[in-house]
């Protein structure tokens, strides 16, 4: 089973995806860390994250330990991640990584194009969002908690700029999949957001099981048993 959780920054998708993975006994992958790690490699080299040749090389050289770095968050890492994520060569280099992870044992993956590009066949797709102002407030509090000085207005402007880059890029733009379940967390705390997401996921899985049973009763049991 693969569950795709997409949405813009600071909407709460990472927290939800992690908890869904724990509840379902599935591995979890924050795919945004892949792009952050590529961006950080380029910053370490003094290279421009928008340089397609250097960025592709960094993506193909990525190692699991790169995802455990402590400096993958913050304004510089955010901007670098958004820049490399707009490059088709980088996205292609990281696509197999993500698919191999999900196909190995099933997984919950969160990102911006999981349900549209990485796993369009995922049985459950969530698109998690919140108002710009609420997302900026959450990110601002997160930065303050890490001791990073930032003005709320600057955080809001950067979030909006990143949303525009992510939604407007030619390669895998951020958008809900056609069959994604939408969840607005603007007015929800962490517990309420998880309860809402869990209800959506269980409802979707339950409907799929009912559809499968109905098809089996119609005489297609062999075909569906083989593909399930």
Describe the structure in your own words.
With 228 residues, the chain is an alpha/beta fold. The protein has a single domain (2-227), classed as Rossmann fold (3-Layer(aba) Sandwich), CATH 3.40.50.300. The chain has nine helices and five strands. Strands 2-3-1-4-5 form a five-stranded parallel β-sheet, sandwiched between helices. Helix 1 crosses helix 9 and helix 3 (52-60) packs parallel to helix 5. Residues 211-228 have low confidence and may be disordered. It comes from Teichococcus rhizosphaerae. It is an enzyme of class 2 (transferase). Belongs to the cytidylate kinase family. Type 1 subfamily. This is Cytidylate kinase.
Task: Provide keyphrases for this structure.
single chain, 228 residues, alpha/beta, Rossmann fold, five-stranded parallel beta sheet, 9 helices, globular, disordered C terminus, cytoplasm
Give the beta-strand count. Answer: 5
SSE-based structural type: alpha/beta
At the first level of CATH, what is the class? Alpha Beta
The CATH architecture classification is: 3-Layer(aba) Sandwich
Give the low-confidence spans: 211-228
Region (Disordered): 209-228
GO cellular component, one term: cytoplasm
Binding site for ATP: 7-15
Organism: Teichococcus rhizosphaerae
């Amino acid at each position: 089973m693969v569950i795709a959780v997409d949405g813009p920054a600071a909407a709460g998708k990472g927290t939800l995806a992690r908890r869904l993975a724990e509840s379902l006994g599935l591995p979890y992958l924050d795919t945004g860390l892949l792009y952050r790690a590529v961006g950080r490699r380029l910053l370490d080299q003094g290279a421009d994250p928008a340089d397609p040749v250097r960025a592709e090389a960094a993506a193909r050289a990525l190692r699991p330990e790169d995802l455990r770095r402590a400096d993958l968050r913050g304004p510089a890492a955010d901007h670098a991640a958004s820049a490399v994520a707009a490059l088709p060569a980088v996205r292609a280099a990281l696509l197999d990584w993500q698919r191999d992870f999900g196909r190995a044992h099933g997984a919950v993956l969160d990102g911006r194009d999981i349900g549209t590009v990485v796993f369009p066949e995922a049985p459950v797709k969530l698109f998690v969002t919140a108002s710009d102002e609420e997302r900026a407030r959450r990110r601002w509090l997160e930065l303050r908690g890490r001791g990073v000085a930032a003005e709320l207005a600057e955080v809001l402007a950067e979030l909006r700029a990143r949303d525009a880059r992510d939604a407007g890029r030619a390669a895998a733009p951020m958008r809900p999949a056609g069959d994604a379940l939408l969840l607005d967390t603007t007015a929800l705390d962490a517990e309420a957001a998880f309860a809402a997401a869990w209800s959506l996921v269980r409802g979707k899985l339950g409907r799929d099981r009912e559809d499968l049973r109905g098809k089996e009763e119609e005489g297609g049991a062999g075909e569906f048993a083989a593909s399930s």
